[in-house]
Amino acid sequence: MSPDSGRPRSLFEKVWDAHLVKAETADTPAMLYVDLHLVHEVTSPQAFSVLAERGLKVRRPDRTLATIDHATPTLDFAPGEAPPYATDAARKQVETLQANASAHGITLHGWDSEHRGVVHVIGPELGATQPGMTIVCGDSHTATHGAFGALAFGIGTTEVGHVLATQCLLQRKPKSMRITLDGPTAPGVSAKDIILAVIAEIGVDGGTGCVIEYAGEAIEALDMEGRMTVCNMSIEAGARAGMIAADETTFAWLKGREHVPSDPHKWDMAVTHWSHFRSDPGARFDHEVVIDATRIRPMVTWGTAPDTGIAVDAPVPAARSASHARALGYMQFEAGKPVSGAKVDQVFIGSCTNSRITDLRAAAAIMSGRRVAPGVRALVVPGSVAVRKQAEAEGLDRIFIEAGAEWRQPGCSMCIAMNGDKGEPGQLIVSTSNRNFEGRQGPGARTVLASPATAAAAAIAGHVIDPATLMEPAHA
Predict the structure, then answer these.
(1) 18 and 107: one domain?
(2) Residues 437, 354: contact at Cβ < 8 Å?
(3) Maximum C-alpha span of the chain
(4) 347 within a domain of the structure (yes/no)
(5) How far is 20 from 293, CA to CA, in rounded Å?
(6) Is 154 in the same domain as 190?
(7) Nearest to residue 164, comparing CAs of 39, 53, 32, 70?
(8) What is the CATH number for 65?
(9) What is the pLDDT of residue 102?
(10) What is the DSSP letter of 141?
(11) d(Cα 474, Cα 458) in Å, to the nearest integer?
(12) DSSP designation for 373
């Protein structure tokens, strides 16, 4: 079925229909063709082992792209030196992926690659992520790629093996939801604030079983980095994926990237094809949510789930359940008082949610001419080698270093705390990552999710603070 034929359909339905190999029945899931399979070192070793045991080859190595990110250290090391892995298990994971990629002819962006980085950063950077695609990865935040009008979702290790062997995937068709962000956002409100507000509105299970399409003025006004942030955290609302229709902002961002057509005629053909992938007028959704974007303010979380977002200066709500009471106790916050003012021990600016160049610019704008507060450790971790180089070309690294922050090599870093970067028990971490579960950033560590600007402001002030108070440049 062509992307624009038949009854009015949503963006999700168009991509689904275009990749349907075998339709779903009451007894069997549908079979979908996969355009792009992204692979990293943590969820792939077992899948490759199954292929080896069964004597199978990777079906489409040209549709498979690998990188190292989760277990890789972000500390500097000299050429010729061994990477300073946090554990021997981390080293083995990386070396196993290197061997598997070589054996199967898969492109791997490893230590010697100029394109190495977090898997959900480098896919779009390379132009490998494109509108209308189906994209999977053994990582829950694959939803990031939906910012380009792709259907992208995380899969389990067993499914990683299935895709490697067949380039197809068995899936039950999700339901659909459209979330419309009406009106413009206030100055200083970022994409991270938008998605934290959305999750607070619908809850951690509000999108369960659904693919969410984001629409409305506030979404259309976002740059691609912001759209990736929004789609990235769709999974934190229980959704299967998040999507935003491609438009001129998308096309301008993709143009000239390595994996997109460079020939002008082929480029025009690609844009024409991509333009079909948007919801038709009259398309129906299983659920519709409308949120007034003009009311959103800089957000932080007070609890141990991503739906505990509140405005940075708003009072923490009273516990409504046993889990909320436990979260308040763990986070050491008091109902009726704001998170603002809470003493900060560490700040992490990075992750597949907020490690792109615009995120680093937002943080640098706050830190410029200022110093990180005494007793606070601040880590700034770019999402890829390319982001790091661009930041250094713009002088952002000097701003961070002169402020007293640590400027790191690319990687997942403290987001997942399996690579040497972590918080200590009891420490409060303001983080631009996507999850604030108990121990997510280290055993006993407490995580407040926030935007890059809010995180940078916390590093400077030494406590959680509204970034608007530091938006004006510091005086020399």
Answers:
(1) yes
(2) no
(3) 69
(4) yes
(5) 35
(6) no
(7) 39
(8) 3.30.499.10
(9) 98
(10) G
(11) 15
(12) P
In this prediction, residue 5 carries a pLDDT of 57
24-to-170, 187, 210, 347 alpha-carbon distances in Å: 9, 46, 16, 46
CA–CA separation, 172 vs 154, rounded Å? 14
Whether 329 maps to a domain, the answer reads: yes
Query: What's the confidence (pLDDT) of residue 2?
Result: 47
DSSP letter for 366, please.
Answer: H
CA distance 423 to 296: 29
Does residue 267 contact residue 399 with C-beta atoms inside 8 Å? Answer: no
Sign of CA dihedral 116, 122, 125, 131: positive
CA angle, 226 as apex, 118 and 355 as ends, to 5°? 30
Q: Which of 146, 172, 198 is the last residue of a domain?
A: 172
**256's tokens:** 């000239």
One-letter amino acid identity for 249?
A: T
The sheet that has 36-39: what strands, in order across it?
107-109, 64-67, 36-39, 134-137, 151-154
Residue 19 to residues 71, 169, 240, 251, 400: CA-CA distances in angstroms?
33, 10, 17, 22, 45
The gap between the terminal CA atoms of the chain, to the nearest Å, is 62
Q: How far is the C-alpha of 332 from the C-alpha of 322, rounded, in Å?
A: 15
CB atoms within 10 A of CB 368: 18
Q: Which residues contact 187 (CB under 8 A, 6 or more apart)?
A: none
3-state secondary structure of 50: helix
Q: How far is CA 56 from CA 94, 100, 161, 163, 331, in A?
A: 22, 13, 10, 12, 48
Q: Could you please report the per-residue DSSP string of 327-358?
A: HHHHHT--TTSBSTT-B-SEEEE-TTTS-SHH
Quick one: 167 and 220 in the same domain? no
Same domain, 207 and 59: no
Residue 181's DSSP bridge partners are 291
Residue 100 · residue 120 · CB < 8 Å: no
For the chain, residues with pLDDT lower than 70 are 1-5, 473-476
Overall size of the chain counted in residues: 476
Q: Which domain holds residue 465?
A: 299-470
Give me the residue label for tokens 């068709």: 173
> Phi and psi (nearest 5°) for 331?
-80, -15
The answer to pTM > 0.70 is yes
Is residue 255 assigned to a domain? no
